[in-house]
Amino acid sequence: MPIKACADKLKNELEQFGFPPVFPGDVEEREEEEESPDPADPTKRAKKTKSKVAAKTGNMTYQWDIMRSLGINDHDIRKFTDPQHWLEYFPPLAKEDLKSLGVRVDWRRSFITTDANPYYDSFVRWQFTKLKERKKIKFGKRHTIFSPLEGQPSMDHDRATGEGVGPQEYTLIKMKVVEPLPKSLSSLAGHLVFLVAATLRPETMYGQTNCWLHPDINYIAFPVKTGEVFISTTRAALNMAYQDFTSEYGKTQVLLHLKGEELMGVALKAPLTSYDVIYTLPMLTIKEDKGTGVVTSVPSDAPDDYAALRDVQKKKALRDKFGITNEMVLPYKPVPIIDIPGIGNLSAVTACDQFKVSSQNDKSQLEKAKEMTYLKGFYEGVLLVGPHSGKKVQEAKKLIQGDMVASGEAVLYQEPERSVTTRSGDQCVVALTNQWYLDYGEPGWKETVRNVLKGVRTYAEEVNNNFLTTLDWLHEHACSRVFGLGTLIPWDPKFMIESLSDSTIYMSYYTVAYLLQGGVVNGSTPGPLGNTSRADDSGHTKCGDTHQPCLVLLDCGIATSLTHFDLLQMRALFTAIVKGDLIIMLM
Ligand code: ANZ
């Protein structure tokens, strides 16, 4: 995938800037461009320069410059527009470097891991055919981190930033704009218009007192499939468009561009709250790159909301600036909806008082207040209102979410937990995409793995615990893609096998590679075993059918964090179990 992305980038540069290319501006200027701050979050670019890509490229923007910095001449650089050339050019150089480092390697076991090598290709096809036969691979629409530019899911190793980041589910609360529509929305007359607030706390909707918007953030109004009109940030709308909210997949039709300040003091009907009408008010700490930029306010349980509501109630100048009248703010008081033992039924109020939070900008004290209320609220809080009154928050959360979704008052929405950018620089969304996936969530398969784990002795107890935790959350995992290099899915060759899925047990290939290939990395000549057969469509090769015990060596080198390490090992375990082979894990 990165090879294909770099080859394509180079090709585009040559098409755009000629050969040898003449780029606009000199290198210094280009580096400055790269460092200019992101208007939404000035701290962001500073971090970006330390990213993996920046560390590897020294901040060079063009692929051409990167190739040149490797000492490759202009004529030869051109050849790198073909991704296959990378596979021929770099392996011998890497081998020389490793040799000069004094690394002791059995070079007979070197091989290339794409379909450029028919032996490895067969091995992967065999593995996936087996998984398919045992019904462990399924097809369907899944939520995945997705690059709109590349038109396909973006897996960990495709990313420049955001490794390990997954989709985060929010409940979108539909807050209906009361008719007649205010002046700024008058062109939408005849439509049902909703401000959609992203929340992780649907069970607190009984305590809503107002809705927050940032006066300086840009919002858009766009139609969704149901005929209703939603208002959110453009970024959130794009995520929704990739989750089948809009009539055309991946597209939003913008009806209106609006600045937050144009939407202040708008009257709304919100679900579950005891207040008949609530109003939009300004909050200056809203983040543009999180949720929809529309935030519902629950001052009884959210310290941020209590502090901000107090600000608007106390500061007349602030109200006047945004045309907020007294009736929109002063009558609204925090409503007791959840009791937290030891803190009480207005936990945010208690916490803000205890930590002397001075305003919505008092970040450090707000953090302490949130720490005190959130965790305890989730585990020990008990709901005081509504049909689920008396139930624990933990339990009520899903029930209330389900009720609101069923009644059409809320919808489920996902976005990346944190910003994810691809190696080609695209900002990822969460998309519903059709793909092949490994069903690691299947209870029977999980149970087998759990039983195997009982017999696994680990040096540290923590490792075992991490395995069990990973096993708990592991669920469906996409294993197909449409872009990059690799092995085609044997039964559906318009898809390719995602490259971490094909390599969960690739370490076992080392045990036979020297017999099959004898060190010819692309397998172009047969090795000592003289096996020239390519896998047939069932993926069977001589190697696969002899059913040799499969030795799975797990490679710490590709694990970037403990979580990843667990995940890879766990996936290897799932795969190996299906094949009924012997597993030896080296940790
Ligand atoms: C109602 C609510 C009640 C919330 C409650 C919290 C506590 P974390 O956990 O940090 O991800 N929110 C949503 N979008 C936001 C944005 N763009 N900028 C600032 N805050 C935003 O926070 C999720 C919560 O942050 C969401 O859940 C929302 O407030 C707020 F007792 O909704 B909550």
TrEMBL record:
SUPFAM superfamilies tied to this protein: Nucleotidylyl transferase, ValRS/IleRS/LeuRS editing domain
Bilayer-spanning residue ranges: none
Keywords: Aminoacyl-tRNA synthetase, ATP-binding, Ligase, Nucleotide-binding, Protein biosynthesis
Enzyme class name: ligase
Annotated spans, Disordered: 17-52
The UniProt record lists the keyword Aminoacyl-tRNA synthetase: yes
GO MF terms, alphabetically ordered: aminoacyl-tRNA deacylase activity; ATP binding; leucine-tRNA ligase activity
Enzyme Commission number, as recorded: 6.1.1.4
Extent of Acidic residues compositional bias: 26-38
Biological processes per GO annotation: leucyl-tRNA aminoacylation
Family of this protein: Belongs to the class-I aminoacyl-tRNA synthetase family.
PANTHER family for the chain: LEUCINE--TRNA LIGASE, CYTOPLASMIC (PTHR45794:SF1), LEUCYL-TRNA SYNTHETASE (PTHR45794)
Protein's recorded name: leucine--tRNA ligase
Species annotation: Geodia barretti
